[in-house]
Automatic annotation (TrEMBL):
Pfam families: Acetyltransf_1. This is N-acetyltransferase domain-containing protein. It comes from the Bacteria. It comes from Vibrio marisflavi CECT 7928. The lineage of its organism: Bacteria, Pseudomonadati, Pseudomonadota, Gammaproteobacteria, Vibrionales. InterPro entries: Acyl_CoA_acyltransferase, GNAT_dom, YpeA/RimI_acetyltransf. Residues 25-187 form the N-acetyltransferase domain. CDD domains: NAT_SF. Keywords: Acyltransferase, Transferase. Coiled coil: none annotated.
Amino acid sequence: MKSKHLFNIYDSCDIHSGMNNVYYIFMENLSCDDINSFYLAYTNIIRERNHYIKTIPPSYEYVREWCLNNIKQQELHLITKYNNALVGSCDIYSRRYEGAPHIGVLSIFVVKGYRGCGIASQLLKDTLEKAQQRGFEKIELEVLANNSSAIRCYKKFGFFQEGVRHKAKKLGPGKYIDVVLMAKYLDEPNNVL
């Protein structure tokens, strides 16, 4: 079930500085061929310690099994590539095992150097459209409270704050970051997709 979607971005996102060209990014479903590049991108995001809730990257084996299960279960997981390198990922998994199959949990990242040029917005737009087609009614996510650009992006797509987990991520002795809990109802009439 490999489908490709092409969209363009502008050079303002550090792909090549000083040029006013348009670059094309491929969006497609995660496949077995993408697991290694997904693992590298995912663990690099975690190591930045600024954009992701996890602080220690999981093992390659764990991520590989998680990806293979997503592929086997045909879970919703879109990735973006530039020059065959994975530069963004967005997935939604169902809470069906928790008695809430109408709720999806969203996770998204964009690799450093590709942020601020529309990749996250395009990933969100396409992933939310597919989530609605699959029958999800509500999408939930968690975001670090200091990640203001991500929070602005989520709000642009109709997400609202449901709560806060205070001191949810520990950065060091006496240093914490809150986690903002956000959600979006896909079945509301003034839904932004």
